[in-house]
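A favour between colleagues. Tell me how you read the following sequence-structure pair.

===
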Amino acid sequence: MSKVSMSTRIDASANQVWKVLSDFNGIPVFVDAFEKSTMEGLGVGAVRSLTLKSGGPPIVEKLERIDELAKTLSYSIVTSPLPLKDYFSTVEVIDLGSGQCEVKWYSTFEPKDVPEAEAVKIVEGVYTGGFEGLKKLFGAKLLK
């Protein structure tokens, strides 16, 4: 089983960031790779279909659990063109006070038909894109 765990600090309150992250259908707001998201159902068990800007088949994900108090959301991939199987991920928002928070994004999965290092790099790329999108959304200047 492969694992990826990444985190970043955001210059916004935990409540502000959680409002964005807890909208299971709202991921295109902060992950630029996604053109749109369509969702069936509400709450735990809801399924979103993510259309990639690059084209190809959608990524279909299922909301496995959400905890508003702990500010955590977990989801799994149902079907995907990505070389991953048994993917399960959690996003967590931690209040740091003073208008800042930490976002943790971690997952477990099995690489599918690619070396583990390649699968890990793909997942890290998605998380990095999400973190950059959140920082942009909340007005941070990104260092290049």
